[in-house]
Please model this.
Amino acid sequence: MTPILYSFRRCPYAMRARLALLSANLSVEIREISLKNKPLELKVISKKATVPCLQTEKKIFAESLEIMYWVLGKSDQEQLLDISLKGINLIKYNDGPFKTCLDRTKYHAHYDNVELAVEHKIAKEFLSQLNEELRTEFILGEKRTLVDLALLPFIRQYAFIDKRWFDAQNWSNLNRWLNSFLRSKSFAISQRKYPIWNPGDKPTIF
Ligand SMILES: N[C@@H](CCC(=O)N[C@@H](CS)C(=O)NCC(=O)O)C(=O)O
Model:
């Protein structure tokens, strides 16, 4: 069975899963969904019905990192899984405090008691740290790893909250890393648009 990926183009979690698939050169049937009108087929296999969700012959993966690990476990041509504890901790911080800060900044109108100055400070600390790490071409060194793919969609989302402000910060390494990703072929492919999937549609292969 060709694995099925329930996906949403703009979701940073789904984006990192698609980036891993591209690196692995592994094909899936992609099902673009509407988050406001999730298909029953997704709800049946995943209680929380978030994207990305990967349905394989044996297992359902409802967490983006699990999907990345599974995909790269099958085929890791770039040795993306060769990461250190520092890398694992950066992903944890990204998915935890930084993602919270990203949401509270981007969607601050939806929250009570957001102090944007506090959120800015949290983000600036993390982004400055990444800028330091990026004295090498990629976060953990001269070759890209899972850590780059896992973080890039989130840093991109943060940058585009106010790209002029982001570009004006003293983060030349971070900007180089992000801009080279934005210009990359894998980013372009990962952002291809697909129509919303409907049951009975001819499979779309990603
Ligand atoms: N921890 C999950 C988070 C996935 C997630 O929250 N995805 C969002 C879209 S960016 C979603 O599906 N939201 C719909 C919902 O929560 O009902 C992962 O890593 O895959």
Observations:
- The first helix runs from residue 12 to 24.
- The beta strands are 4-7, 29-32, 53-55, 60-61.
- Residues 167 and 175 are 7 Å apart (CA to CA).
- The chain is about 50% helix and 5% strand.
